[in-house]
Specification:
Number of helices: 5
Order of helices and strands: HHHHH
Structural class: mainly alpha
Helix content: 40-55%
Strand content: under 5%
Largest sheet: none
Number of strands: 0
Distance between the termini: 31 Å
Shape: elongated
Length: about 100
């Protein structure tokens, strides 16, 4: 996230309102590939919103030079933690992957 926020700033993006993520965005593709390598899981609709909001928080913090402060990411993590969904029960099953096949 930090890398993508810094890239937006270096590309000249000046307003957080111009930060947008779509399912075609590189960041979305990278996160999906990392966490859903074999595409066994349908990406929840809320995920796109959370990714965009997280990127916006990093963008705001870096733009405001908060990244010069120690532990600057803790504030961001507290904000985005409120966006978490509950983990579905089937993820907690020891046979989770068998249910996907």
């Amino acid at each position: 996230m930090e890398k993508f926020a810094r890239q937006l700033l270096s590309d000249g993006v000046q307003s957080v309102d111009d930060v947008r993520i779509t399912i075609d965005s590189e960041l979305f593709r990278i996160l999906n590939l990392h966490y859903n390598r074999n595409n066994h899981i349908e990406v929840p609709p809320h995920f796109l919103y959370v990714v965009e909001q997280t990127l916006k928080e990093f963008f705001r913090a870096i733009q405001a030079s908060k990244d010069l402060e120690p532990s600057w990411k803790k504030t961001i993590y507290k904000i985005i933690a409120r966006l978490d969904d509950n983990v579905p029960e089937y993820f907690k099953s020891p046979n989770f992957l068998e249910h996907l096949e």
